[in-house]
Description:
By secondary structure, the chain is mostly helical. The protein is 71% helix and 4% strand. It has helices at residues 8-33, 44-99, 105-128, 180-233, 237-271; strands at residues 130-131, 134-135, 142-145, 154-157. The chain has a two-stranded antiparallel ribbon with strand order 1-2. Strands 3-4 form a two-stranded antiparallel sheet. β3 (142-145) and β4 (154-157) form a beta hairpin. The relative contact order is 0.17.
Amino acid sequence: MLSILNSVSSLNAENAISNTTSALNKNLQQLSTGLRINSGSDDAAGLSIANGLQANVAALTQSSQNTSDGIGMLQTADGALSQVTTLLDRAVTLATEASNGGLSGTQATALQTEYASIQTEINNIGSTTDFNGTAVFGSSGSVFTSDGTAAGSKSISDAVSSLSSTTLALTTTGTPLTTTAGAQAELALITTAISTVAASRGTIGATVNQLNASAGVESTESTNLTSALDSIQNADIGQTVAQMTQNSVLEQTGMAALSQSNQIQQNVLKLVQ
């Protein structure tokens, strides 16, 4: 039936063109952003999952930085303690020499003076060593890591004991190295202090290993979550290009069909001429 009031074929063609143009615009947006999901209307469930994964990855990324900071602080402490060990080794030499009889008063005083300077330097190391502006020795902090969930959060203590001649139980008053008996007693204290420092370095090393293991887990988890995020959120460029080509052709054929439908309406006029 020929009619001039309504052209169903034209309306169908217009609707088809509108749908095709919308799909083509969506293809172009996906190609320009590289994302399959650009709004909730694209994939509401997928967007929710992607946002959750993004939060997980962000938490793991910062956790990795937290771990690196903790390791850096502990390595700073270990390096300082290495210097303390060197100082104590020198103190052993001084105390051993002072324990031997036959030294003059001047020589004994010189040994005591150097020993006192060693203690002063140990105190300086204990009070001035810092990491990122925070004192290393005597710290009581911890490294917090999380994957963005309560179940995936934990804290690892990176506390480091205070360091001074007093905490190492060395004699800090008097002049122990000016007598053989005093020097021999001090030698025993210095030897014990060396063991104390070694134990502290062992504890620090164990914590560093724990943090390194945690960092490895965080890195693996972040990689896996990023891969999952990519598969959900990112556009398949090859597939999108193919869809865009198809929609572009459909748009052109739709335009041609609409033109042909309009031409049919023009033919109706010829019947009344």
